[in-house]
């Protein structure tokens, strides 16, 4: 049994159990692997969306929390930037 953390629009949408993996799906065994994939997705797509697979409930739950923390910090950073805009200044994320 595998645990899939589904992230859409930078938010954890679902944590679900899955019996089998497709040939293009793989289990993230370490925190380093999970963090690296998260970073790669953000750099490539400007978001952390994806289906992340684990073989341990606690690791999946921890990863989901990391995703939400990442999103919270991203939102706070952008909010801080918007609030610091000078009159007439533009903002691009």
Question: Would you mind describing this structure in some detail?
Answer:
There is one protein chain. This protein is an alpha+beta fold and 93 residues long. It has one domain (2-83). Helices cover 45% and strands 22% of the residues. The chain has two helices and three strands; from the N terminus they run ββαβα. The chain has helices at 31-45, 57-83; strands at residues 2-8, 11-18, 50-54. It has a three-stranded antiparallel beta sheet, covered by helices on one side. Strand 1 (2-8) and strand 2 form a beta hairpin. The longest helix is centred in the last third of the chain and has 27 residues, at 57-83. It is elongated. The N and C termini lie far apart (39 Å).
Q: What is the approximate shape?
A: elongated
> What is the H/E order?
EEHEH
Total separate domains = 1
Low-confidence stretches: none
Strand order of the largest sheet: 2-1-3
Main structural class: alpha+beta
N-end to C-end Cα span: 39 Å
Largest sheet: 3 strands, antiparallel
**Portion in helices:** 40-55%
Name the beta content range. Answer: 15-25%
The residue-averaged pLDDT reads: 93
Quantity of strands, as a count:
3
Radius of gyration, Cα only, in angstroms?
16 Å
Number of helices: 2
What characteristics describe this protein?
93 residues; 3-stranded antiparallel beta sheet; 45% helix
How would you concisely characterize the structure shown here?
By secondary structure, the protein is α+β, with helices and mostly antiparallel strands. Helix content is 45%, strand content 22%.
